[in-house]
Amino acid sequence: MSQDLNRRKFLTYVGTGVTALTVASAGLGAFAPKTQAEGTKAASHLFGRKKKVSGVKFTPIEASGKDELVLPRGYKYDVIASYGDVINKSGDTFGYNNDFTVFFPINNSNQHGLLWVNHEYTSDLWVTGAPVNGKYSASQIQKLLYNQGGSIIEIRQDEDGVWKMDTSSKYARRISGLTPFRLTGPARGSKAVGGVDIVQGTFANCSGGKTLWNTVLSAEENYESTSEAASLNETHYGWILEVDPFDPNFAPRKHTALGRFHHENAAMGLTNDGRIVVYMGDDKQDACVYKFISKNKYVESRKQANSDLLEEGTLYAANLGKGTWVALTIEAVQAAAKGNADILAKFQTQADVLVHAHDAAILLGATPTDRPEDVEISPFDKSVFIAHTNNAKHGNIHGHITRFLETNDDLGSLTFDFEIFACGGRQSGFSAPDNLTFDSEGNLWTVTDMSSGSMNKGVFETFKNNGVFVIPTSGAAMGEAYQFASAPIDAELTGPCFTDDETTLFLAVQHPGEETEDINNPTSMWPHRKGDNQPRPSVVAITGFKY
Question: Is 338 in contact with 241 (CB distance < 8 Å)?
Fold first, then answer.
């Protein structure tokens, strides 16, 4: 991106003020926020929500090719946990390739809580060692499974403002490819999953979500290679799983009613009549966007018992050509497959529909799209944002962000309209949007997912390393992207998550040095630990957010 373009965007954005633009465009000038600093707490309101301190009061950075996590002036990061770090008294260690993060406050604190972290995949070079004659040994498979899944760590911000992990935590533990999970919903115990109701482990954990009852949802994405290497039944993976980070007696579970595919995330909201809705993306080329609507209504006082809402309901896939949500039911599938013996043999029960959700969706007319990754619900107007990362098969090299507008602003609606909110490319400064989150000023924060093998080459050269971008969702600067962070070499930034007061942003730095071929000559050594011999995926806490 040219310096002139950066300067124009910067002056437009900062000179006018994002908050002023947002309020003016919404006709809410009379309710413009009046902030008063009191420590790190905010005292004003915007759109009926508490305005916090994240904002976008920073000078956007230039694209960078440095082997460093580059931030705007005035911001810093603390490395909280890295691959191999001990997380508890039992000696459990932090897994590899951290991804999604979500913060669970302890006693409503913004300086103390639990952090759930996904671990997506491992590395032959740095974790397991290469397979011999195409096969891993038993000890290699143990490492392969242990270092995926999730970590629950306890973290604190000390008096000096530094975030650290508390390894004496009574909560800290690992959920991995070795942890037993129970299946829930229509596929539990069915022939489609081999007749079982307990399965081994979770892996390929990409993004996820947080439930209204304070548990975590984690999404199993590219599960094929690990399940094959470990000789595990492939139908036991590719689900949305649920864990209670505070309660080890809450049995980890996989909710089959939400369908099986290459799950990227799970964004939870409420329909206008009080039922649970979960939006999900299927991260592969020519895949669909889904949502699940529970049969029964959410009751806050039921707390974690609300988990059973994810066991019964209807799974839908989006038909963008008609603007409709298509119900994936066995009756609809069998009607569409009438006369086709092979398809009818494949789909005999609702469990079959859920296990083969993508095939059912395409059969029923859902729209194949360009790698739908993160899907998030705007807390301001309930529009739904979808990161369509890219699809070279269709010439969509740099991806785009799609915005669904549900009829009557009801997440339970079965009809919708949509728009292309932002497009990747030279004109916007970003390529391959991936994880999304919102701040309290209505800005969309997105990280990018250019593959490590394509970065800094050809049509990706101008973007340099992957990054974090902030995009206003309303006002004169709507759709403009401002770069907040740049990743180390070969790395991807994932799992952005704010503390409730938005004074800290948690971020995962995944696969630094992934293109390394010789361990004696790594392409990255981030986080540059003194005396270390390898790059390490790590979770960081970014601070410096001001009024």
Answer: no
Residue closest to 113 by CA, chosen among 223, 203, 246: 246
Tokens of 455: 């970065």
**CA atoms within 13 A of residue 328's CA, in its CB half-sphere:** 33
pTM (2 decimals)? 0.91
Q: What is the mean pLDDT of the chain?
A: 91
The tokens for 15 are 């000179």
Which two three-digit tokens encode residue 406?
């549900």
Residue 227 φ then ψ, to 5°: -65, -40
Q: How far is CA 461 from the centre of its chain?
A: 26
Structure tokens given for 319: 């038909």
* Residue of 92, 271, 281, 269 lying closest to 174 (CA atoms): 92
- What is the tens place of the pLDDT at every residue in 208-256? 999 999 999 999 999 999 999 999 999 999 999 999 999 999 999 999 9
Measured between alpha carbons, how far is 149 from 166 in angstroms, rounded to an integer?
A: 20
The total of other beta-carbon atoms located within 10 Å of residue 525's CB is 18
Structure tokens at 335: 């009607």
Tell me which residue has tokens 């018992």: 305
Lookup: tokens for 186: 């229509």
Q: Is the pLDDT of residue 364 over 90?
A: yes
Residue type at position 66:
K
The H or E element containing residue 438 is strand 433-438
Whether residue 83 has pLDDT greater than 80: yes
Write down the residue that tokens 């039922």 correspond to: 275
Whether the pLDDT of residue 39 is over 90: the answer is: no
- Determine contact, residues 244/285, Cβ cutoff 8 Å: no
Torsion angle, CA of 188/347/411/502, rounded to 10 degrees?
A: 50
d(CA 194, CA 262): 20
Structure token pair of residue 78: 């603390």
164 token code pair: 């650290």
CA–CA gap between residue 372 and residue 395 (Å, rounded): 15
Which positions ≥6 away from 209 have C-beta within 8 Å? 102, 216, 217, 265, 266, 267, 268, 278
Q: Is the bond preceding residue 527 a cis peptide, omega within 30 degrees?
A: yes
Residue 259 and residue 354 in contact, taking contact as beta carbons nearer than 8 Å: yes
Sign of the CA dihedral running 412, 413, 419, 420: positive
More confident residue, 391 or 1: 391
- Burial zone of 389 (CB within 10 Å; 0-12 exposed, 13-18 middle, 19+ buried): buried
CB-CB neighbours of 455 under 10 Å: 23
Among 173, 190, 308, 309, residue whose Cα is nearest residue 260? 190
Considering only the C-alpha atoms of the chain, give the largest distance between any 2 of them, rounded to a whole number of Å.
70
Those residues whose C-beta lies under 8 Å from the C-beta of residue 73, and which sit 6 or more positions away, are 58, 59
